[in-house]
Amino acid sequence: MRSAKMLTITGVLAASAMTLAACAAAEPTAVEPEGPVDLRMTVWTANEDHLALFDSIAEAYMAENENVTSITFDPLPFEDYTTTITTQIAGGNAPDLAWVLENAALDFVGSGALLDLAPTFEEAEGFDYDDLTDSATGLWRDGEGLYAYPFSTSPMAIFSNTTLLAEAGVPSASEQVAAGDWNWEEVAANGAAVKAATGKAGFIVRDFEYQQWDLLSTVWNGWGAQPWNDERTECTMDSDEMVDAFEFLHEAAFETGAMPGPGTTADFFAGEVAYTVTQISRAALLGEAGFEWELHPLPAGPAGEYSVFGQAGIGVIADSPNAQAAADFLAFFTNPENSRQLAQYFPPPRASLLTGETLAQTNPLLSAEQLDAVVVDGIATGVTRPTIEGSAEIQQAVRAQLDALWTPDADIPAVLTSVCDAMQPLIQG
Amino acid sequence: MRTETAPDVSRASRRSRRRTLSYLAFYATMTVLAVPFVFPTWWMITSSFKPITEIFAFPPTLVPENPTIQPFLDVFALQPFAQQYWNSAYIAIVVTIGTMLVSSLAGYAFARIQFPGANAIFLVVLVGLLIPAEVTIVPLFQMFNGLGLIDTHWPIILVSTFGAPSVLTTFIMRQFFLSLPVELEEAARLDGLNRFSIWWRIAMPLARPALAAVAIFSFLHVWNLYLEPTVYLQSTELFTLPVALTRFTDAYGGALWNVQLAAATMTAVPVLLVFIVAQRQFVEGLAHTGLKG
Amino acid sequence: MTLTAVRALPSRAPARPGGAPRRRPHRHRRQDALVGYLFIAPQALGIVAFVLVPLGLIAYYSAHEWNVLAGTFRFVGTENFERLFTDPQLGGVLQATTIFSIALVIANLTLALVLALLLNRRMRGVGFFRTVFFSPVVVSLVAWTIVWGFLLQADGGINGMLATIGIEGPNWLREGPTAMASVVIVQVFKNVGLNMVLFLAALQGVPHELFEAARVDGARPSTIFWRITFPMISPTILLTVIITIVGSLQVFAQIAVLTQGGPGTSTTVLVYYLFQQAFQFGKFGYGSVLAILLFLIVLVLTIVQWMLRRKWVFHEN
């Protein structure tokens, strides 16, 4: 008898649960507000100089557009940036504008979460839509639509610590370039010498930290390796080129000590590393550096010279009640005039601005020659970092397998085969 | 123990020496065992006074060589830490008081009041003990999402006070009220007090030890919550301390150990001090309930 | 923590759920019933809203897939359940969960019992050490875990200490076996104080005459422990085993802060995997299926311990 009563209770509850779920499932209704507009944009930089520049552009915009009463730039931790944005969208707390990292580009562009910006940009006064280069916007297009503005198109380059290299008695990076030795083999050899002579680190791929493996594309492209084929349907992490590239990294991490091993920290900008692969936007951190430094393009790999650039797009969330206002602000934020200012940190996708001379005007730390070599050539000849649909899951699955590679006696071909075993089911859809 | 016919001096002194040795052995063992319990806290506090250059110094420095309070200042510069501290504190206090009320009401009713269906309802409530918070986090997220309460403190407060976490404390209260003699309440009833007054004026004052245990349980529970705020909260200024602690990184996501440890120190030390002052009530209160959280 | 805790407690009054003393003036009955419902209402409604309804919703969500970015929510039938059987990761996840739970229970209970036995004496300083061993319980979990994560870095404090005496320590959090051991150890030292206090209370409840009698009979300390102490505190041991196992299935912050489930998937326990699937990969449907699995595991464990209790445990009254 008691169990009968329990059953009834359960039944009632189950029924009410279903009703509730049905209500929850049938929601979003966007309202177009007429009153004052507050815009929020999520960004992953928390750098004060970057934010100050954003704020000054935003203030200029609000001065002209009185209906926009506030524009907030909301820095989110880089580590789980995409997860946080997705959760915010799921939780009905979506930002109006969001930086989208390139590794999630396909997820966002293909989903319909972002507003098509092409109509707004075409009509915006002084925006000069045709100035945007095709190579920079490729990732963000779907048919005729443009779903994000490739706000930062930042070539990966190498900063080197000249002071530290001299201390170890090895040639500086420009001496290497002059001698025709600007390749990974020499960089690793010098790095090992630095480690042996000073105890500091030889080279690092910044932010990689043995987790964010797609950052290693800055290395493996020099070996001509790709994580997947062009159609993104087949894993190629087990290719011969990739095996060679990982053998190079493994040797640097575990035999020569040129690259610090997993779990050890070394910061180039604190003077603890001889070479770092990073984006030139990080030059901002060198303002107070207590050492001499140089900037060069990526060194050549066995497959020759190459370049890789990283991108971040700014998109407008389609469901935002202020979507159009947000798109209008974005057109202002990235117009030629403001792009010129932003260019000191974030190389723009605009043909008119992509010259060493123009970039040098706003980039006090870097010379026109450096910028020509790294930025202008880099964007012209480079490839973007790898991107794929379902990036969060693939990122995690590959990371889990690659962990086995970062041990002293790892079987590299076997690990990379297991990487593909894990990745293949995820990219076939 | 055998009785001895005459006091044997040498044997007595040998025995006392042996006792001294066994004392020493006992204290030595205990001290060694205590290291992993004390050392992390010590290391947390001292490292938070170290400049970043000393954090990974070799050999490690047990006491900072160049003590600085800069990490503590950085904590407040990098995050709205005072606001986050307030968030954690007020949520913990609201939930603790709420849980004490909810649990003592329900515990009292289940122990003392006869009403149809009491057994069945009690069993249904006990199901809450069986459900790890992780099981219901997805539907709870979506329910609160439907109500527009994501990125507010409401989900944490409501679920902790009324949901599964308060079942254990209801159970503790019920057990306690069952063990109280009924005569006092019967007398109060005959004097014409209603149930509510009996609960509030007679039963509750008697229930102080159990209420203390309930308060400790629910405070520690809420103070430590990590999954829930991670899922429900998105704005930095709404974060609670455990979430904030994991977010101390430089502009590009690199770990700032000394700043993070300074924040951890500020989170841990006040509760630790309260515990040291009131440790007898803590330990005995928990032992008294015969349960743990 | 568990249903059976109802009986494991040495309750001084008859443990009849909802039972009230029998003799009661008749006229109060109806009014009493109303008051009773009012008193339990906050708790009961809370359980309905925040436990039972979500449980029902899990069943509903497990048959659906929600794409957050596209804003679609569609019925997929048993697809998510089928995935449970084809998921290549799940085996490793269940293995990690099992290893973690068993290692944690053994380490935690052994240490708790040893500490309780050592401290179960009248001696100066006992109270001090009890406080010391209990203190991590009140330290914020995330703070405690962050400090250990810092200590366990490749170039962190522990390896630094080891290096001063000439030992090269392992890279604790980056190698499978030591990563799992680290997570277990961090958790043991955090919470062993609670079990120690429960054991101390149980030990103090054992009648002193039993020990005296055994000693008079010339029993050795080990015999006394296995024949008297252990059986007498067996209800507490079983209770703590279950509490610790169920608690170990909920370990989340430690994994998230220390290893993020790595290296490989060696420390990806079920709860962390559930979080990854639902909140990192946006697979809320599959996450719901994993939640059902977690619920079933806890349910089975509870039933098993309930049956074991009847069979093995020394009678309590």
How many domains of chain C, as an integer? 1
Secondary structure: number of strands of chain C: 2
Helix count of chain C, per DSSP?
14
End-to-end Cα distance of chain C, whole Å, is 21 Å
Helix-strand string of chain C = HHEEHHHHHHHHHHHH
- Say which CATH homologous superfamily of the domain at 37-154 and 310-383 in chain A is assigned: Periplasmic binding protein-like II
Count of β-strands of chain A: 11
What's the CATH topology name of chain C? MetI-like fold
Q: What percentage of the residues of chain C does DSSP assign to strands (E)?
A: under 5%
**Hey, which two chains have the biggest interface?**
B-C, 112 and 115 residues
Shape of chain C: globular
Q: So what's the CATH class of chain C?
A: Mainly Alpha
Into which percent range does the helicity of residues of chain A fall? 40-55%
Give the second-level CATH assignment, the architecture of the domain at 37-154 and 310-383 in chain A: 3-Layer(aba) Sandwich
What global shape of chain A is seen?
globular
For the sheet with most strands of chain C, the description reads: 2 strands, antiparallel
Low-confidence stretches of chain C: 1-23
Description:
The complex is a heterotrimer of chains A (429), B (293) and C (317). By secondary structure, chain A is α/β, with parallel strands linked by helices. Chain A is built from 17 helices and eleven strands. In chain A, helix 2 (48-64) links the parallel strand 1 and strand 2. In chain A, helix 14 (356-362) packs across helix 15 (368-381) and helix 16 (391-402) runs antiparallel to helix 17 (412-427). Chain A starts with a helix and ends with a helix. The model of chain A is unreliable at 1-33 (pLDDT under 50). By secondary structure, chain B is an all-alpha fold. Chain B has a domain at 82-238: MetI-like fold, CATH 1.10.3720. The longest helix of chain B is centred in the N-terminal third of the chain and has 39 residues, at 9-47. Mean pLDDT of chain B is 86; it is low at 1-5. The two termini of chain C are 21 Å apart. Chain C has one domain (88-312): Orthogonal Bundle (MetI-like fold). With 317 residues, chain C is an all-alpha fold. Helix content of chain C is 68%, strand content 3%. In chain C, helix 3 packs across helix 14, helix 4 packs antiparallel against helix 11 and helix 13 packs antiparallel against helix 14. In chain C, strand 1 (64-67) and strand 2 form a beta hairpin. Chain C is globular.
